[in-house]
């Protein structure tokens, strides 16, 4: 195994082992390691991978790992990164399955889970602000994520429909903008 693949495996093994809360909680750690520390991807490439991983069926963490690994070192990188990020969870699930019945009613275990919840919310919220900055969210387009969240939470609209409509609308808007002169220079970004 070449050194880049081994390094990629170790990074995703660490991310999988020390991140609580699932795939979205892993995003800031992935961004720090992949974009900031190793500079394997630009921030824009990372956001593009994030968008594709959200749109791809399957587990988000595995999708992120496979897309990032593939982008960095090809198909084998995708496989190695996916195994790295999944291995700690597989081992943890096996251990929990073996011992959870004996400790599931333990007051201390319940308190640990209650204490971890706020930290997981913060880890999931952090990438939202980072993505908003990279996506050049401005006052003129802030309504899009707000309306999307309202449609999903209040009206039960499937996120799949939101993604499909947003993709088609973005394509149509891009085609329209290409045909008209660019007047967006006076628009302020956040």
Describe the protein.
- The structure is a single chain.
- The chain is mainly α.
- The chain has a domain at 3-105.
- The chain is built from 8 helices and no strands.
- The protein has helices at 3-18, 23-37, 43-55, 60-73, 75-103, 107-134, 143-155, 159-179.
- Helix 1 (3-18) runs antiparallel to helix 2, helix 1 (3-18) packs parallel to helix 5 and helix 2 packs parallel to helix 4.
- The protein is globular and about 65 Å long.
- The protein starts with a helix and ends in an 11-residue tail after the last helix.
- Mean pLDDT is 84; it is low at 185-190.
Report the helical percentage.
over 70%
Mean pLDDT: 84
The percent range for strand residues is under 5%
* Number of alpha- plus pi-helical segments: 8
Separation, N- and C-terminal Cα atoms: 44 Å
| Strands, count | 0
Short description, anyone?
The chain is 78% helix and 0% strand.
In terms of topology, how is this protein built?
Layout: H1 3-18, H2 23-37, H3 43-55, H4 60-73, H5 75-103, H6 107-134, H7 143-155, H8 159-179
Helix pairs in contact: 1-2, 1-4, 1-5, 2-4, 2-6, 3-4, 4-5
Based on the model shown, name its key terms.
190 residues; 78% helix; disordered C terminus; mainly alpha; single chain
